[in-house]
Amino acid sequence: MGRQHEIMALVDSLDAALADMLPRVGDPTSAQRAADAVRTFSGAVGQLDSFLLQLQELQPAPRGPDAAQKQEVEELKAELQEKDRLIAHAKEQIARWQAVIQQQEQLQEATLFAGLGS
């Protein structure tokens, strides 16, 4: 369970860094914030890559005639569970990003209409 939390924390840091890369109207530090976010994103990708490589090395070799097949079935079950969890997490992120996009669109419309009214 600890590894799942580590992976999710890395995914969340990727998501937060990506959000920080978005421009914000009237933010004078936007360029610096975006540059910092790119470095954070890159670091999180490197950590995730390293973590996944370590995880791959920890898998024990199967023994016996049915051991390989049983291990593969267990791995596939675990993979399905992990994918279901990741899909649920992705759906949450999609909903969050849709809200961000809607806010950005509303801000752009408000800015456009404010400019037309002057």
What order do the helices and strands come in, and which of them pair?
Layout lengths: L1 H20 L8 H28 L9 H51 L1
Helix pairs in contact: 1-2
In short:
The longest helix has 51 residues, at 67-117. The protein is built from 3 helices and no strands.
Structure write-up:
- With 118 residues, this protein is mainly α.
- The chain has 2 domains: 1-58; 64-118.
- Helices cover 84% and strands 0% of the residues.
- It has helices at residues 2-21, 30-57, 67-117.
- It starts with a helix and ends with a helix.
Task: For this entry, give a set of tags.
Mediator of RNA polymerase II transcription subunit 28, Mediator_Med28, mainly alpha, 2 domains, transcription regulation, transcription, nucleus, 118 residues
**Mean pLDDT rating:** 83
Distance between the termini: 57 Å
* H/E element order: HHH
How many distinct beta strands? 0
Determine the number of helices (DSSP H or I, runs of at least 4 residues): 3
| CA radius of gyration | 21 Å
The percent of residues in helical segments reads over 70%
Task: State the low-pLDDT regions, or none.
Answer: none
Number of domains: 2
- Sheet with the most strands, sense and barrel status: none
Shape: elongated
User: Approximately how much beta-strand content do the residues carry?
Assistant: under 5%
Structural class: mainly alpha
